[in-house]
Amino acid sequence: MAKTLPIQLVKTRKNQDEFLKEAGGSNDLPKWATEQVIRENSVRLVNALDNISLHFENRHPHNCQLPLLIKAKLNEHATAKSYRPNVRALLNRKRKHNVIGISGFRDILFKLDGNDDIKAIKDDIASVQNHTSSKDKLIGVAAIEELSIYTCDVNIDELSDKLLKIQLVDYKDANLNTLSEQLLLKLGKDLACNIIKANYAEGLRIFRIESPSADSIRQIATLDSVISIKEMPYYELVAAPNPFQAEVELAKPIEGEKYPILGILDSGVEKSDYLSSWSLEEEDNIAGLDELDINRNHGTMVTSVAVYGDILENTNCTGCGPLKYVSNIVNSDREGIRISEDELIMYIREAVQKHPEIKIWNLSQGSQTEVSDFIFSDFAIALDDIQKKNDVLICKSAGNSHNLGRITLGAESLLALTVGSVCNKGTHPEDLDEGMHSPFSRIGYGPEKLIKPEVVHYGGNIKTGVKVLTGADIQHTAFGTSFSTPRISSLAAHLVHRLDGTFDPTLVKALIVHNANYPSVVDKNTSEYTRIYGFGLPSTIDEMLNNDEDEFTMVWQPDFNEGTDFQVIDFPFPNSLIDENGYFYGIVTVTVVTDPVLKGGEGNEYCQTDIDVKIGPIQGVNHVALGAVGIPKTYRNEERIISLHNILTGDKYSVHQPEMMRERNLIMKNHKWQPVKKYQVDLSTMTDGQKEKIKDDTTWAMTIRSFTRDATMCELQEDGVINSIRTTIIITIRDPKHKGVVYNEGIRLLNIHNFEHSNIIIRNDIHLSEGV
Questions:
Q1: One GO BP annotation here (predicted)?
Q2: Which residues contact 425 (CB under 8 A, 6 or more apart)?
Q3: Which of 44, 388, 515, 711 could link 544 by a cystine bridge, Cβ 3.0 to 4.6 Å?
């Protein structure tokens, strides 16, 4: 059935749907904060502070002006954000914030200015021992197991005479940051080392130093503000195309017609009949390379896929036609030319800032260093900073490897759309089935089980590559995520072009992820499929923007500016989706994409925002009188849902489902603090008990709650500035029985319950010159 019915943009009903945040918690100590733990920790912490106090008397002269950096190791049960205020209560002083960041999974980083700070903390510990302290400080003592002086661990022999990057701590204090920078630069001058400040991201203090001696590294590492010294990564372009011969239709733009625009961050694009007419302007050699050092081969192939992807493959992979592009040389695949991480970041930032009109950028390159389990890389943080400050979306390749290698630095960028590869249709006996994971494509997860790549597209099989163009319009085949990525970039650029209104990266990402599905060859019996395929292979662009009669798609973009949550009663779930036995059925797909608050100095808590969505039938609504006898003082909302049965949780569905039914369910578990989430459930696969439990609940509701981590909450309490959180939630309800009424019923329910809604506004299809 053709999809011709527009998806709906739906607004929350202002005050009616707003749900003011309410305080929670208990007055009791947590179970792990026992008297024995508090007693033992008290003694251990006092002894540690006494040892630290001695260190103040024997500091190196260049450290005397700086605070001492201390690492606090937390109890394994105290890592949740709810206990962080207790830690701060013990370590901070009035109007003085000593806690400055996170250095590991259980490690808090804080500063001590001198023995006065130590005495104040010891006095608080004494009050705990004497049973005269507040609950906050009791839990604080229970939460901290160890204190130790932070030291910068470096392997000097491995680092000497190489290009390095030095990271200084962010003191959250402008004066201390300036002082520590001055001390580092002065030490570099004394050592005859050229130290240069690099522009990575807000809160990420990185400096470049070239070929220092072992002794210089040793002395720099003694600066108390230095938290790491590492080798500077390099980023490379890899491609080895094979020639092929086929008819490729030449496409030309129509003069005066507006086309999608894509920024290419690569090695340049050769001038040719096929590509030059689609170049929006002269190529920009951002990297300042000599012409002899430029090899445009990789960039030309990448751009040919972005412009001619469907035409080259002679199939409707994306549903996108050609587009305009702007080529920016930020790297080279010429042998012997290497671009360092700080240089690449500088070039990308400059290219993006030069072209504020370009909202989608293709970045098909990477390193050979795999991501960490817990910490986000400096490169990823820098890419996020560029995207957030310039309001753009970067489509980033997952990288190439063998034996299911993990994604490399930069591919874990939270705001980027990371792309893996699946096999195109093969022509060789050794090729895999179309849609299977390309053997060279790197897989997830990112840090903190982040789902990366989010999507996949065709990038090559075992023997059969995807079709590309190289210089002088020579036709080749090639393999790599470098060539699956521009298909997604093209989709994103066409979506930006087709959607009318202000650019919103969360909407573009959400549409692509929401309309991604797993190829039929994917085995969903394994637990690894999201790690390999992300959320799947996106559909064509027209299917993203329209429904048929058996499905109903709503796009919600709630405004969290006022710090409120949302409680949407009378959520429009069609009554037609009740079977002959009175049970709900239907396939519900929910995608949540957030532009979160990010803090590079917070380690594994880099992502500071989480959005939680629950949908399901409810037993009713209670109306309470605020302030009345018996009503909790923490209540701030009169209307309160009675028992929402959230359909997006896995425990409601049978584990003994037929394979066809299992294919329809995607339940995300343990993925809090992720900016991209997706759920898909088939209500007919609920357990009999769950079906019976909600059989008589005909009213549906949706709750949307935002959560903020401790570092951002501290800033809010200090300056009162509420961060605006952009979020797009897309919900599709589909009737697998094809009654042909779901779309119209969804529209009717929106109208009945006074939801303001409108068709998503799109441009007409773009046109090419006649004869093409």
A1: proteolysis
A2: 434, 461, 464
A3: 515
d(CA 419, CA 533): 9
Distance CA 455, CA 118 (A): 51
Are the CB atoms for 262 and 355 separated by under 8 Å?
no
**Residues 17-36: tens digit of each pLDDT:** 999 998 876 778 889 999 99
Euclidean distance between CA atoms 555 and 113, whole angstroms: 51
Angle value at C-alpha 317, between 313 and 319, nearest 5 degrees: 115
Cβ atoms within 10 Å of 252's Cβ, excluding its own? 15
- CA of 741: how far to CAs of 218, 504, 577, in Å? 73, 31, 10
Helix axes 84-91 and 710-719, enclosed angle (nearest 10): 60
How far apart, in whole angstroms, are the C-alpha atoms of residue 522 and residue 666? 13
Which phi and psi angles does 148 have, rounded to 5°?
-150, 155
Write down the pLDDT at residue 561.
Answer: 72
Question: Taking the model in full, what pTM does it have?
Answer: 0.94
Beta strands in 308-447 (DSSP E): 324-329, 339-340, 360-363, 393-397, 417-422
Q: How far apart are CA 155 and CA 229, in angstroms?
A: 9
pLDDT in tens, 210-261: 999 999 999 999 999 999 999 999 987 866 667 666 667 889 999 989 999 9
Residues, the chain: 772
Structure confidence by residue, pLDDT tens digits, 308-344: 999 999 999 999 999 999 999 999 988 878 899 999 9
Give whole-number Cα distances, 539 to 7, 317, 551, in Å: 15, 8, 15
Bridge partners for 615 per DSSP = 702
Q: What is the pLDDT of residue 670?
A: 60
- Report the DSSP pairing between strands 195-201 and 144-149: unpaired
Of 341, 307, 623, 243, which Cα lies nearest the Cα of 487? 307
- Tokens 């990010």 locate to 598
Q: Which helix (H) or strand (E) holds 378?
A: helix 378-390
Tokens of 26: 């208990």
What does each C-alpha distance from 35 to 32, 39, 82, 287, 418 come to in angstroms?
9, 6, 20, 61, 48
Give the mean pLDDT of 62-86.
90
Domains assigned to the chain: 35-149 (no CATH), 156-232 (3.30.70.600), 252-533 (3.40.50.200), 548-759 (no CATH)
Whole-number mean pLDDT of the chain? 91
Q: Which amino acid is at 41?
A: N
Which are the contacts of 260, defined by CB distance < 8 A and separation ≥ 6?
320, 323, 324, 360, 490, 493, 494, 496, 497, 766
> Quick check: 404 and 367 in contact, CB under 8 A?
no
Higher pLDDT, 474 or 9: 9
CA distance 85 to 79: 11
User: Is the pLDDT assigned to residue 121 strictly greater than 80?
Assistant: yes
Residue 292 has pLDDT above 80, yes or no: yes
